[in-house]
Amino acid sequence: MTKKNYISAAICLAVSVAIMIVTSMNFLAARDVPLPEKGPSVTEVKMLSDWFDGLKGTNGDTPVYVLKGEKEGGAALVLGGTHANEVSGYMSAFTFIENAVVEQGTVYVIPYTNHSAMTHNDPGEGNLQYFTLQTKSGERTFRYGSRATNPVDQWPDPDVYIHYPSGQQLSGSETRNINRAYPGRPDGNLTEKMAYGVAELIRAENVGITFDLHEASPEYPVINATVAHQNAMNIASEGCINLLLGGINMALEQSPTNFHGLTHRELGDYTDTMAFLMETANASQGRLRGATTVEQVLGGKDECYLISEGLGMLYVPWDENGHPIEERCGRHLQGIYEYVTAYNNANPDSAIVYSGVPGYSELFLEADPSELGGARLGSFLL
Amino acid sequence: MIKKISALLLAVAMVASLAACGGDKKPAASNGGASASAAGEVAGLTEAFAESPILVTSGGQSADYQMIGTVMGKLGMDYEINNLATSADLGDAKTLIVVVGGSSKGLGAAGIDADGELARLEELMAGAKDAGLSIIAMHTGGEARRGDLSDKFITPVFEKADYAIVVSAGDEDGLMSGICAGAGIPMDVIGSISDVTTVLPAAFK
Q1: What was the pLDDT predicted at B26?
Q2: What is the ipTM of this complex?
Q3: Would the CB atoms of B109 and A312 count as touching at under 8 Å?
Q4: Which of residues 112-141 of B touch A (CB under 8 A)?
Q5: B108·A251 Cβ contact <8 A
Q6: Distance CA A290, CA A127 (A)
Q7: Which string of b and e fits B60-83 if b means at least 16 CB within 10 Å?
Q8: How much is the average pLDDT of A289-312?
Q9: Model's pTM, two decimal places?
Q10: What do you get for the CA distance between the two ends of chain A, in Å?
């Protein structure tokens, strides 16, 4: 080998090592997940393993923010980050934790229900890893995760995922989707253990009403919608009417009895909670979208969806204003408020009363257009 | 060069097929293309005609029937809800309200498929007609409750109704107003489901 070849080889090796170091740091940094600041009613931050110790020491263990009012009442649970790429879900949880003043009862909020899914993303989808918002305390960084449990924590996927206990068969990759894993089992895989932990929390704390916050691609028929367990339909109907009166176009669906593993089905069947799932429209999730950008994720704008709307391919109205994060979080937070209010009307002895959380008006309707796409939401974060 | 031209032609063909898959979001009215303007203007209800007790059912198993039940409860109306009612469940009801809106999740929850739901509705409405009940058709889910699944239930329900209440966003193509105008069925158009409170009580003696 000539001297020239040695130099070339050394340069290539050095570049490879540099790339390896940078990507390794990036990979390991994904495990550092930013947490909410403690709002005025946060009395305790527990871990899901406090309800199911099978999660202790795993990447499936996740913080549970406890917001306890001075007056005794019922209990509610808010699940953000079931799918860690559905931004309005966990950002609504952050906003609730950092703003809510709970006067009666207890609200448990899990910002990252699938904590493992927040520690990676889907690079094949061209997804973001991070985005930032200007908040009251300055610039804060937030993660953009994946729909499913990190394969580093649970691998390999089977060819066919068989849901416990129904025996329902789904694609093998769904074995890492926590919203196909409920009610979970203590001796199952990590995703099933996480689901079991949530169900155990609900059972132990007598959680009367549970919200699972999601987003959907504009091509998906169940969008701008609430799905509720049949036991919750009376409350869902009343809450939905109040949302409509407030100018929020919300469809209501009853949870199918033959589709298993989802919160609105299994938490209703295997616990005493009233289970709700809400969906908003996320421009960064669908197949018809353009390049994934921060503007698309937070601003909710996408040129390709404008074309798709013209072709009649979408299930949600679309124009050049898109669906900014403030509208999406506003829908979730207003939905929680209206359904809790309806729950309180039906269950005055176990009421949950809170204030201070910005709703659809504060986040979206009252915002200047220039504030939409993250600035307005950031102004409510600590 | 030939390869480049072939690739270009293939790409054009793929784009053309993608556009062909789209089509109009709202299919043409299935009642022979009748519309309000073609069949004449639809008229609102002018006098009360219905009586209690009321049986409320779904036409397509969307949750809209439950929301109507909630509204009627707030109005203090005398009603029962049975989303899977057949003619055997009519009992002493004097009015049947069918809230139309298709939902695949709702059909799944009810354990019935679209064809079974259609057959149930046809049997129920025939039974109601035979028993002399008044029939009120409602479509309150707006644009979200239009499309192939929902439209399957609209025509058979609306053309047998004595009165119809429709949220305007669901009838932008004039399907329901066309049916009602063509058949002389009074129909009131409202802005949202909550406006049911302004028109439904007026239908009852």
Answers
A1: 34
A2: 0.73
A3: no
A4: 141
A5: no
A6: 11
A7: bbbbbbbbbbbbbeeeebebebbb
A8: 93
A9: 0.86
A10: 61
